[in-house]
Amino acid sequence: MCLIVFDWRPRAGTGALLTLTANRDEFFARASAPLDWWNDAPGVLAGRDLVGAGTWLGLARDGRFAALTNHRDPQAFRPDAPTRGALVADYLKGQRLTPLDYLHEIAERGAAYNGFNLVVGDFTRRELAWYCNRSDTAPSLLPAGVHGISNAVLDTPWPKLVRKRAELGDLLEREGEPRLDALIELMRDPCIAADETLPSTGISLERERALSAAFIETADYGTRGTTALRVVPRGAVLSVQIAERSDDDGSHRIERPGSYERRFTFDLPAFSSRD
After folding, report:
1. Which residue stretches of the chain have pLDDT < 50?
2. Which long-range contacts (C-beta less than 8 Å, at least 24 apart) are formed by 183-186?
3. Are 29 and 49 in contact (CB under 8 A)?
4. In whole angstroms, what is the distance from residue 46 CA to residue 49 CA?
5. Which domains does the chain have, with CATH numbers?
6. In whole angstroms, how large is the CA radius of gyration of the chain?
7. Residue 176: partners with Cβ closer than 8 Å, 6 or more residues away
8. pTM exceeding the 0.85 threshold for the entire prediction
9. 101-109 contacts: CB < 8 A, separation 24 or more?
């Protein structure tokens, strides 16, 4: 997952608690499975990396959420590091910790991994937290507002992040609860940033240009799927709506550009029974 923009409203009584849209960028040769309930962990709804067995974004039926982006630093990359996708899967499958407790546990061993941003939440607790193992910032709860994460720390003003964060804010201002299709279409944008606005992350200028698009398309690497998620209080429950448009119909064969869609809706208690 390489670009996530989201609006977080933890005190929402009406309107959405969370509105999120995200692109997953990956090598086309890396096999993955589309969004679905996992057979070996029936309470987990996520896509799946079939190489490392982890995931980039997912939900648990009890109201937990997690998403991951890589932090780009090619000079520091270690091919023998543990898979980062397990950080998402372990939170969704494991013991129910608060978001901050889980991130503090991860921070104790964060140096073992290649660079990552990890967002974890518990909707019934109305908590969403962030940690980056390449930042000096400790794990922290996120404040209300529109945020974005790409391949640097939270809200780093890379052109595509600034553009999509602003577009999400404008869409919410106009429509309140936009259709999931509209959230997906917002991210299917191949526009390349101007050279003078590009970050310098240790890769070639040609590669920086290609990766500056929200929707990436190169010969061997690109945006493999887009996910839209909305969580809305409806009286005693939270209504969860999620859709994914991907390049995989479940057969693990790539078809570009991605046009396969999966949608899921379920309810969960509006507040944690522990509160």
Report:
1. 275
2. 183/19, 183/20, 183/21, 183/228, 183/230, 184/21, 184/226, 184/227, 184/228, 184/243, 184/245, 186/21
3. no
4. 10
5. 3-266 (3.60.60.10)
6. 17
7. 15
8. yes
9. 103/129, 103/130, 103/131, 103/139, 104/138, 104/139, 106/131, 106/133, 106/139, 107/131, 107/133, 107/138, 107/139
